[in-house]
Amino acid sequence: MLAFLAADVARVDELRDAARTALDWDSIHRDRDSLRLDSVQLAQIDTRRREWNETVDQRIGEAYQWLLVPSAAPGSPEITWDATRASGADPLAVRASRRLRSEEALITAYSGARLRMDLDRTPLWRDDRVSVRDLWSFFSQYLYLPRLRDAGVLLDAITDGVALMTWRQDGFAYADAVDEVSGRFVGLRAGEGLVLADPVGWLVRSDVAEAQLDAQRAERPSPTVIAPVGPPDSPAGVSPSGRAPDLAEQAAMRRFFGSVDLDPTRLSRDASEVAEAVVAHLNGLVGADVRVTMEIHAEIPDGAPEDVVRTVTENSITLRFDPATGFEAD
Q1: Closest to 187 in 3D by CA, of 219, 212, 158
Q2: Virtual torsion, Cα 174, 179, 182, 188, nearest 10 deg
Q3: Domain ranges of the chain
């Protein structure tokens, strides 16, 4: 992750001369009592010290103008050094980082699709997965990978790649852990929003993740279909005329109400499944007015800390919760 700023040999002597002169004036200032200088001489010394210290700062900026950036090809032990000028009046670190960003030698915004390309191209997968912690160590060490500003850039790219609608082609899935006995991924998510605060968890190849997600869907019980019921003296689903009723004779189902408990630790996954399996079908009906309300019930035996009460209350107001929302003492 390192880059280097080096001095131009033609400007080093000028910098050294200025530094020597500045040190001379500092020495005189330290010995001002033994030299018995008057007030006029002391004022002159202070002026000269300030002038030469400013000159040293200026010549440091003029001298250190070469940015040296190491790189390497995958599998090659040879290091290539790219030298480019990083001139300007800004502080050295600001000037160098701006130059690195302009040449894409320092990445401050990294997309999930580009991360997927690097995962496949290098490749960085370990069989069908790679831990986020290992992935960050790869980016921190290997010169053939993009130079990321910090771990937050990688976490943002992971979040973006998991949330892509085209995650199968351009992204990947995310899992909280891996069950080494069964080989299944725990907390597997894809195509949904993700909040990552630390470099933990696993990235999973999209084809492997899709296979497990399909298997999980197949394991869920199918919904029970209730046939139309005729009058009490008629067989179920048969009209008084003795024939099965057609669609025109069936009562129109004009309202739907449903309630389901969601796992608070897997809220994004469960809510996404409800939206896909139920809400999307209802919302697709012409003229349908679909409303979705989230209710939160929390029992806190030991009582909520003051900071949590304040944070939840403020966030509830920001998110436009019902005015009746709030904590209760009993």
Answers
A1: 212
A2: -20
A3: 4-102, 112-219, 255-318
Would the pTM of this model clear 0.70, i.e. be above it? no
Q: What angle do CA 137, 141, 146 make, to 5 degrees?
A: 95
Single-letter amino acid code for the residue at 250: Q
Pairing of strands 202-204, 64-71: unpaired
Which residues, 6 or more positions from 231, have their beta carbon under 8 angstroms from its beta carbon? 240
Q: State the DSSP string of 160-220.
A: HHHH-TTHHHH--EEESEE-TTT-PEET-B-SS----SSS-SEEE-HHHHHHHHHHHHHHS
First to last CA, the chain: 55
d(CA 18, CA 148): 37
CA 3/CA 86 separation, integer angstroms: 12
Q: Which amino acid, one-letter code, is at 299? A: E
Pair type for strands 177-178 and 185-186: antiparallel
Q: What is the pLDDT of residue 315?
A: 77
- The closest of 74, 212, 204 to 132, measured between CA atoms, is 204
pLDDT band per the 50, 70, 90 thresholds, residue 293: confident
For residue 228, what pLDDT is reported? 52
Displacement of CA 325 from its chain's centroid (Å): 31
- Bridge partners (DSSP) listed for residue 203: 130, 174
The H or E element spanning position 120 is helix 112-121
